[in-house]
Design goal:
The protein is mainly alpha-helical and 437 residues long. The chain contains 23 helices and no strands. It has a domain of 211 residues. 70% of the residues lie in helices and 0% in strands.
């Protein structure tokens, strides 16, 4: 009992932290959902996609949106169909119709937090190493939930939250068990069913797997080509749903995007640093696939923007929502590498210096960035609204105006949504500093 006491205390601490983190995030997200204006695409998804399409039509023909992959719209259609039966909490429509995105974000976060924590606690390493790994785990998932685009699209009735969480799943499975490809394959198939833009992520992960295998001899060529099917089949599924017709909303210019992309260079440096840590020891080399995927995806972004603009589709920050995962995945990679990294170094002093630098870099990137202010704001919202009668009244159906209920629930009603000013300005005056649509 005494021998297992540190592990028990660490288990309870990580469990309490997860509960507190998800509570703060959920209450803050519900508050933001009430304050957030309804976006045109959310209206179209409910009124036209979910109510005028059958499940079979969605599967065979897609949603008809810019990214017609149907997976997100199935649960959304079901939630809309059973709204009167399931809404026993009496949620405000602005919260109810966004609860799928919020719920998926919370569930995926909890699931992978528990998986990583369980793996950390099972490993035969020192208690000090476990404490260090659990601390980095807490930082990683806090950074994930309060990253700007992740938090923003967790409260929108659109597919971005599911898309981002499935990408997190693919990267996490690549870190938890690099040799097992079946969970990864399932994640990639689900990504292909969620967004046609997943084709670039699947391609980058396939390229990362190929490069990592080449850099980690001996090379089993027969097995390598067989495993390539895990990436080819999801890409073919993406091709099935890709809308080949062109749009007419191509903005901003490619040069504007390149200025935005160049400002994101720290993401590339972070990926390179993580890859270098993985290749410091041969046991860690298979783990490089996660950050290699993120790095290749970062290098592909100018090409992705060029293709989107040529097709006449808007290039907005939301299509790069996966960049929010780079820092959390860097921390998760570091967690997996630390035990082997310590064994690979020649003496204790160098070991402690290298591990200290890695931890200092991780903590510095977290606390010197905007994340602490976002977490503080969420904590203040939670303290102000938790168990508050006024907040419970705000999120209830009784507080919704008749027009709001009709807008979300009545298929015969159509509200004219004012076009945001930034559309009128043409996206050529610093679009990437504007609203994240």
């Amino acid at each position: 009992m005494i021998k297992n006491l540190p592990r028990l205390i660490l288990s309870l601490t990580t469990g309490v932290f997860l509960s507190a983190l998800l509570t703060v995030f959920t209450i803050d997200a519900c508050h933001r959902a009430l304050q957030k204006a309804t976006w045109t695409d959310e209206h179209n998804a409910i009124k036209y996609v979910c109510r005028l399409s059958t499940y079979t039509h969605l599967l065979l023909h897609g949603s008809g949106e810019a990214s017609p992959a149907p997976l997100y719209y199935w649960p959304q259609k079901y939630f809309d169909h059973i709204r009167e039966k399931i809404n026993w909490l009496g949620l405000h429509p602005a919260v109810y119709y966004r609860i799928i995105s919020l719920g998926l974000t919370v569930l995926f976060t909890a699931f992978f937090y528990i998986l990583f924590a369980a793996q950390i606690l099972r490993k035969p390493v020192s208690t000090a190493m476990k404490i260090l790994q659990c601390s980095l785990l807490c930082l990683a998932f806090t950074a994930l939930l309060f990253a700007p685009l992740t938090a923003h699209y967790a409260i929108e009735a659109r597919a971005y939250a599911l898309w981002n969480m499935l990408w997190l799943s693919a990267l996490s499975f690549a870190l938890l068990n690099p040799s097992s490809k079946k969970p990864l394959f399932i994640c990639l198939i689900l990504m292909a069913l969620t967004s046609t833009g997943s084709i670039f992520q699947i391609f980058s992960m396939g390229g990362a797997a190929f490069i990592t295998a080449l850099l980690n001899p001996p090379i089993d060529k027969k097995n390598l080509w067989r495993k390539s099917l895990y990436f080819v089949l999801p890409m073919l599924l993406c091709f099935y749903y890709i809308p080949w017709k062109s749009g007419n909303l191509g903005f901003p210019t490619h040069l504007d995007f390149l200025h935005f992309w160049a400002a994101q260079y720290p993401l590339g440096l972070l990926c390179v640093a993580g890859i270098a840590v993985c290749f410091a020891d041969k046991n860690n080399r298979p783990l490089a696939i996660a950050l290699f995927s993120a790095f290749l995806l970062f290098l592909l972004e100018p090409g992705i923007a060029w293709i989107a603009l040529r097709k006449g589709y808007p290039v907005t920050p939301r299509i790069f929502i996966y960049n929010d995962l780079v820092f959390p995945v860097f921390l998760l990679t570091l967690i997996q590498c630390l035990p082997y990294l310590g064994c690979a170094l020649p003496n204790q002093k160098i070991k402690h210096v290298v591990i200290g630098i890695c931890v200092a870099l991780s903590a510095g990137l977290f606390f010197m960035g905007p994340l602490p202010s976002r977490v503080t704001a969420a904590l203040n919202n939670t303290k102000r609204h938790f168990l508050s009668p006024s907040f419970r009244q705000e999120i209830s159906l009784s507080s919704a105006l008749p027009g709001e209920i009709a807008y979300w629930a009545d298929p015969r009603c159509f509200w004219k949504i004012p076009i945001p000013e930034i559309f009128i300005r043409g996206y050529n005056q610093g679009y990437f500093d504007g609203p994240m649509r």
